[in-house]
Design a protein that fits this description.
The complex is a heterodimer of chains A (331) and B (406).
Chain A (H helix, E strand, L loop, with lengths): L1 H33 L1 H22 L1 E5 L5 E5 L3 H9 L1 H33 L5 H14 L2 H24 L1 H5 L12 H7 L7 H12 L1 H7 L1 H13 L2 H9 L4 H12 L1 H17 L4 H12 L5 H25 L10
Antiparallel strand pairs in A: 1-2
Helix pairs in contact in A: 2-16, 3-16, 4-11, 4-14, 11-14, 14-16, 15-16
Chain B lengths: L1 H10 L2 H23 L4 H9 L2 H35 L3 H5 L13 H9 L2 H32 L5 H13 L6 H9 L7 H18 L6 H15 L2 H13 L14 H8 L6 H14 L2 H9 L4 H12 L1 H16 L3 H6 L25 H37 L5
Helix pairs in contact in B: 4-19, 7-13, 7-14, 7-17, 8-14, 10-11, 10-12, 15-16, 17-19
Classes of the chains: A mainly alpha (331), B mainly alpha (406).
Chain lengths: 331, 406
């Protein structure tokens, strides 16, 4: 009898434990169910594609007549072709990186500026917000490529015109008809200021590209706006009572409070910029892809480009990460 | 007393009575002002508005307003000029005096595009595709975002890093693999055999091209066709064999159907779906756990809580995600250009071309042709803008509320 009781007791306790565990496992199991679509997509379709793409870049593809394709291993040949043989690739890569260096600060600063503007009490704020958000919806994909086609046609025409008329070639300073202002105009204003010519050129470039920059900073603007609205008004109030000016308030309060968003936006801008269609590198790769009818030259190039941008992202995150201020929350 | 004063008032002449009334009114007004601690209007005006502080504020406000108007103008002007130039006839492009408003306004450009480029067919196809894809993406990304936000399981952080990874890799990098994947669609060689069945199926489906109404019939046809040729089962076995003994790779050809887009949407690897998952996760992180706990206490399961409480609650976010997905799918030319290779399946990006009926060989050919292309763009955008006008409030609110702020 005693034996039976002793055997029963230990049986009873594990049962309880099993029940407790099953609640958490049930919850984690439903967690797996929720993310199942992504898991299936990633591991069955996306990851094989990534692996395949890397594999392709080391191979040569032959489309078989009976349907299907065959791979011949060629080693680093595609990469060698991109870096050594194709003169355009490295040049485009540099210009694309230069574009990135120009665009990212411009977009981040501009979107912060506009977000601060839109966050203040201005009549018709809702309308302005709607307007500033239009580019996010409208200027993607097809519209971007239409604009691209048109500018291409324009430049072709202007090239033809300048070739036909000898006068057009000599006026180098006015080569860009769309430019709102030229370096000379601004240089006149900044003449007495001790700012470098590089800065002046940068500002001029921003002003002339203002349309492109506005077009690309819609999402960033919204992220900044959300960040600005999450800053507690009590802080601003106490600042005002202490006698801080708006300028001081911005640099001492607003700027540190939204510094995490600056990091997020910088990373987002880098990604957005280098995956966008108007990026010279992307255009170049798509051109190569279309010209060679889907051989793997373009894939190898895309991978080189991707690795470089990953390195840039890591650099940006490391550089900015040190300066980001995180408000401590009691939790 | 009262009777006396009333009598006195009655005895006064009309003029005097009026003067008295006026005086009483004035006194009452003064009393009211004093009771409310209010200053007379002009004093108030002087102290409130004639100060440096107010002048500065007003100046800044005007400055801000002007700046915003200017920037809005920069955004809107290109579209305005596109709209204006779409009404121009080709004579207007040569005329130097014509800046924005056409001298010879015409609707020929619109008519030619709609008639020759198959606008309405493209509109229909694109609407169906975008609606289906956006709905699926919205639901799938919400599910995944909720899973990442509210549940604890192993490898959660690593898996979330993978979501970020899909966001970073541009789809151009895997363009070729994407194409190959859906040209020879196969998961572990399983579909190779079933492919025979399905290719017949799709052939019939597309031959009928009656859309979803012809589903039943096409299934019947497919079965008949595949049993006629070599049988679905035999094909399946063959596919298994070929999948196992790596011969030349064959699979389903899913090109020129909606399946690549639907599969990618279902599995959250479509265009910018990583961003959607990220936004949804951030939003759900901000939703208090107590809400779900209350539902659990009341006896609802995890899924019931999700459907009955979480989904209705996050309608704003769903609209936001839907709008993003819809808009980006609508104007996408990367995937549609890759997956829809035949000239039969017209989507909106395909209508961007110079219509044959418009004679562009004229003095200002480039300007005219780019105006035509812009008009195509306008026609593509028009339905989207209408949708945006209805949804923009919810959408912007949604992004602000999403708590991307962390």
């Amino acid at each position: 009898m005693t034996n039976v009781k002793e055997t029963k007791k230990p049986k009873a306790t594990p049962k309880k434990k099993v029940k407790e565990r099953s609640l958490t496992t049930a919850k984690s199991r439903s967690g797996w169910v929720f993310i199942a679509p992504f898991l299936v997509g990633f591991f069955l379709i996306y990851l094989p594609m990534i692996v395949e793409s890397i594999q392709f870049s080391f191979n040569e593809i032959k489309i078989l007549s009976g349907g299907g394709y065959q791979l011949n291993f060629v080693g680093w040949e595609n990469y060698e072709y991109a870096l050594a043989e194709n003169a355009e690739f490295v040049k485009t890569l540099w210009s694309s990186l230069g574009q990135l260096l120009f665009n990212v600060p411009a977009i981040v600063i501009f979107s912060l500026f506009v977000a601060v503007l839109l966050n203040s009490k201005v009549p018709g704020r809702a309308i302005f917000r709607a307007i500033f958000f239009i580019p996010v919806i409208v200027s993607t994909g097809i519209i971007e490529s239409i604009d691209l086609q048109n500018t291409l046609a324009d430049t072709m025409q202007s090239m033809a015109e300048s070739a036909s008329s000898t006068i057009g070639a000599s006026t180098g300073g006015q080569s860009d008809p769309n430019a709102l202002i030229s370096v000379m105009d601004v240089a006149r204003y900044f003449n007495n200021m001790a700012v470098g010519r590089e800065l002046v050129q940068y500002v001029v470039k921003i002003v002339n590209n203002v349309y492109g920059i506005i077009n690309k900073s819609g999402v960033q603007m919204l992220i900044f706006l959300a960040g600005l609205q999450s800053v507690s008004p009590a802080i601003y109030e106490s600042c005002q009572i202490d006698g801080a000016t708006a300028w001081e308030t911005f640099w001492k309060i607003t700027f540190p409070m939204i510094s995490p968003m600056i990091l997020v936006n910088t990373v987002y801008t880098v990604i957005d910029n280098f995956t966008s269609k108007s990026n010279t590198m992307m255009t170049f790769i798509s051109k190569i892809y279309n010209d060679t009818h889907g051989t793997v030259r373009a894939t190898a190039m895309a991978w080189i480009y991707f690795l470089i941008v990953i390195a840039i992202l890591a650099l940006v995150a490391a550089l900015l990460g040190g300066y980001v201020f995180y408000q401590r929350r009691d939790k | 007393m009262d009777v006396d004063t009333n009598l006195e008032i009655a005895q006064l002449s009309k003029k005097e009575r009026k003067a008295l009334e006026r005086q009483q009114k004035k006194e009452a007004a003064l009393r009211r002002i004093k009771a409310q601690d209010k200053l007379p209007f002009w004093t108030l005006f002087r102290y409130k508005y004639c100060t440096w502080y107010f002048a500065k504020k007003l100046g800044l406000g005007i400055f801000r307003f002007v700046l915003l108007v200017g920037l809005s103008y920069v955004i809107i002007f290109p579209y305005l000029s596109k709209i204006f130039s779409s009404f121009m006839s080709r004579e207007d492009f040569v005329d130097v005096t014509v800046q924005l408003i056409a001298k010879y306004p015409t609707l020929d450009t619109y008519r030619a595009i709609i008639e020759n480029n198959g606008y309405f067919q493209g509109l229909l196809n694109s609407t169906i595709l975008s609606l289906v894809c956006a709905t699926i993406q919205m639901l799938a990304c919400t599910l995944v975002g909720y899973g990442f936000s509210k549940f604890k399981f192993r490898f959660k952080n690593i898996l979330f890093m993978l979501v970020i990874f899909t966001m970073i890799v541009p789809h151009e990098t895997i363009q070729l693999s994407l194409f190959m994947k859906f040209r020879y669609f196969d998961v572990w060689g399983l579909f190779g055999g079933v492919g025979n069945f399905f290719t017949n199926f799709f052939k019939c489906f597309q031959a009928d091209s009656g859309g979803f109404a012809a589903w039943g019939e096409s299934i019947k046809n497919a079965i008949a066709a595949s049993t006629e040729t070599n049988g679905a089962f035999l094909g399946f076995l063959r596919g298994l064999k070929e999948g196992l003994f790596s011969g030349p790779i064959t699979g389903l050809n899913l090109l020129n159907s909606d399946w690549p887009m639907i599969i990618m949407s279902l599995t959250c690897i479509g265009f910018k779906n990583g961003l959607f998952i990220y936004i949804m996760r951030q939003y759900f992180n901000g939703v208090p756990d107590e809400l779900e706990e209350a539902a659990y206490v009341d006896g609802a399961g995890v899924y019931k809580t999700f459907v009955k409480i979480i989904l209705p609650m996050s309608a704003t976010m769903l609209v936001t995600i839907f709008m993003f997905a819809f808009a980006w799918q609508w104007s996408d030319s990367f995937y549609t250009g890759m997956f829809y290779t035949s000239s039969k399946s017209i989507l909106l990006p395909n209508i961007v071309k110079i219509p044959a009926t418009l004679d562009t060989k004229y003095a200002a050919q480039t300007a005219y042709e780019s105006a035509i292309r812009n008009t195509c763009g306008l026609l593509i955008l028009a339905p989207l803008v209408v949708l945006y006008l209805f949804a923009q409030r919810t959408m912007i609110e949604g992004v602000e509320r999403s708590g991307i702020t962390g």
